[in-house]
TrEMBL record, chain B:
Broad enzyme group: translocase
Catalytic activity: 4 Fe(II)-[cytochrome c] + O2 + 8 H(+)(in) = 4 Fe(III)-[cytochrome c] + 2 H2O + 4 H(+)(out)
UniProt keyword list: Cell membrane, Membrane, Translocase, Transmembrane, Transmembrane helix
Name the UniProt record assigns to this protein: Cytochrome c oxidase polypeptide 4
């Protein structure tokens, strides 16, 4: 948790900077997002429980199917997602500084704002999803399908639900980027939106690392 | 915010403790309980850790002062939409999409544009032009 950022207390009046209201209190949006993400962890707990249960009752399916998995490919795809989290965090730092878009040229990375970093995050995230789709098509050719056996069901349900989460995160990035175009000022509410979206993105990233370790490394 | 994060820390330790106990009890052969209990501990760690980390940045609130008065926490709590139809349309179009998963894909195709319009309307309602919050 050390590398993610928070939004501090804020007021609804844009003129009053954060932390200068009558009382400093935790940002409700940020706390609410974390509570919701904790409940998301329970959703994935169900998927992990399913994985380990089927693995313990049908180990022969694992010996048959795991040798088809392309571990180096999945590792490369994992790296793409992890790196996207780094770009996302750089965008958060800019959002916290109140820099919605770049102040320099396109190639002056230091002058980038939240928008540019989030677009880069978006690109990396979509490469990950595209990589997942490619992998699915490979595995279907190898005979692992959603309805082929319990291993196939497990594989597509766990990675598929994660992929849906990543896709939802990509849509959230679009909305957050879009807001920087429609409103006149970059307010604390906008920065809060950017920051809680980054919480979600980091969460989905960590869940993928756990899924990758379980499905590809532990097998 | 000491009380809050201590509460979640206790729950976290409890869940991990019970998870280990459950594992030994079942000879580590029943994974659902172990995974469920450990990740419930993770749930508590996530919320408790976040509260602890926020508390470090904010310092004590009036709520943390045993001698504090209710009037100490007055002031601005944030922005709350006074009135909006968008959540209703968002819920309605979401229901159409999920109904489509049961009824047939044609209904999903009809629901998706509605869902997109209401999501955009909901997200952008207070983030337009001069009067953006």
């Amino acid at each position: 948790m050390a590398d993610v950022a928070t939004a501090t207390a804020q007021t609804s009046q844009p003129g009053i900077p954060a932390g200068h209201g009558p009382v400093t209190r935790p940002n409700m949006t940020a706390v609410g997002t974390m509570v919701w993400l904790a409940s998301e962890l329970m959703f994935f707990a169900g998927l992990f429980a399913m994985y380990f249960t089927i693995r313990s009752v049908a180990p022969e399916l694992w010996t048959k199917n795991t040798e088809v998995l392309n571990v180096p490919y999945a590792l490369a795809n994992t790296l793409v997602l992890v790196i996207s989290s780094v770009w996302c965090q750089l965008g958060v730092f800019k959002a916290e500084q109140g820099v919605p878009f770049r102040t320099g040229k396109l190639l002056q990375l230091g002058q980038w704002g939240m928008r540019e970093w989030y677009v880069l995050t978006y690109i990396f995230g979509s490469v990950f999803v595209a990589g997942q789709v490619m992998e699915y098509s490979e595995l279907v050719h190898e005979g692992i399908r959603l309805d082929s056996d319990a291993y196939g069901s497990m594989f597509y349900l766990t990675t598929g639900f994660h992929g849906l989460h990543v896709t939802g995160g990509l849509l959230a990035f679009l909305l957050i980027i879009g807001r920087t175009f429609t409103s006149r000022r970059y307010t604390h509410h906008q920065a809060t939106g950017a920051i809680v979206t980054s919480y979600y993105w980091h969460f989905v990233d960590v869940v993928w690392i756990a899924l990758f370790a379980t499905i590809y490394l532990l097998q | 915010m000491k009380v809050e994060y201590k509460l979640f820390a206790i729950l976290c330790v409890f869940c991990f403790g019970v998870g280990i106990w459950y594992g030994i009890w079942t000879g580590w052969e029943e994974p659902v309980g172990v995974v469920g209990l450990f990740l419930t501990g993770g749930l508590c760690a996530m919320i408790g850790g976040f509260v602890w980390w926020t508390a470090r940045k904010l310092g004590p609130r009036p709520d943390d002062d045993p001698q504090g008065n209710i009037s100490d926490v007055e002031g601005d709590y944030g922005f709350f939409s006074p009135h909006s139809w968008w959540p209703f349309f968002l819920g309605l179009s979401g229901a159409v999409v999920f109904l489509g998963l049961a009824v047939g894909w044609w209904l999903v195709i009809i629901g998706m544009p509605l869902l997109a319009i209401s999501a955009v309307g909901w997200v952008f309602e207070y983030f337009r032009g001069e009067n953006a919050i």
